Amino acid sequence: MTGLRLLNEIMDPATREQVLASHIFGEGEPTVAPSPQPQAPSPEARSTKVRSDIATPAAPYLDRRLRDVPNLAEVWSYINPFMLYGRHLGFKGNFEKLLAERDQKALKLFHDVEEVKAEAARFMKAKAVWQFFEAERAGNAIHLFSPGGESPIHTFQFGRQPRPDGLCLSDYILDADEGRRDHLALFVVTAGSQVRERSEQAKQAGEFFKAHALQALAIETAEGCSEWLHRRLREDWGFPDPPTMTMHERFTSRYRGKRYSFGYPACPNLDDQQGIWKLINPDEIGVHLTEGMMMDPEASVSALVFHHPDCAYFTASEVNEPALVS
């Protein structure tokens, strides 16, 4: 994520010279850029872009749920074709449109991937673990509680947009209503078991397309599983998608609420992954954290799920201090 940010800054004429000047490499060791000056404390008032006068939906249950997802075909229906065929497999153009028009390149790629799916269906497993938690906002932090608990069991500290009336993820947690707390959900899904080994076997056999397509399919199966689970959580929470909602509308987040993953712009601190592991133990579905707080296997997705209808995706400032842990 840091590399992506640096590339964006290098491509921006307004920031290019400063970024290049602070990342100078000569003979021997790279020079160390001067430490940035401490920033003023981030404001903690809720952004006026987020309503605070809406009803708080009750969480449907507060126990931890763990599930093997047996129907891979259903999960695969939640895969974004642009991501699988375009981003991962390099197809140029509108894949869905060209496939419908019987374009020969699109047809060949589709059938090649269907063969990989048929093989993957014999070993690929999609798994999920999730839980709703009682939540309270505390400035730019969110306290999570066990059911009816008085002291937080964990606290996530978030950054705020560095601009007037900037957004922070804590803004999407409503204040207690007549003693009833708001809620958010945490989840981890995975489809990566055995994928690395099977891909390596295909590579050693000279089946390079299969080796790459298996890993691409696993990554997008995990993404599809997260889309599938998020839809289910919205249903459980009491605000299901309209019957007319299309998959394209889901891929562009036209539903109520949003899900956010650590490492992305609204919550860039990957160290906060430890909080998810502490609270819902994704190790039980075979997903572990590396020393760099990345997920292993790679074909896994973790997320925080908010119900607020004003949720938006945005870029927040990083939080320099470590996350608070109760």
Uncertain regions: pLDDT < 50 for 5+ in a row?
321-326
Q: Average pLDDT across residues?
A: 90
Q: In CATH, what is the homologous superfamily of the largest domain?
A: Vitamin B12-dependent methionine synthase, activation domain
CATH fold-level topology of the largest domain? Cobalamin-dependent Methionine Synthase, domain 1
Q: Cα distance, first to last residue?
A: 28 Å
Count of alpha/pi helices: 10
**Which CATH architecture of the largest domain?**
Roll
Number of strands: 9
Give the helices and strands as they follow along the chain: HHEHHHHEEEEHHHEHEEE
Strand content is 15-25%
CATH class bucket of the largest domain? Alpha Beta
Give the % helix: 25-40%
Shape: globular
Please state the structural category.
alpha+beta
Count of domain modules:
2
Largest beta-sheet details? 7 strands, antiparallel
Cα-atom radius of gyration:
22 Å
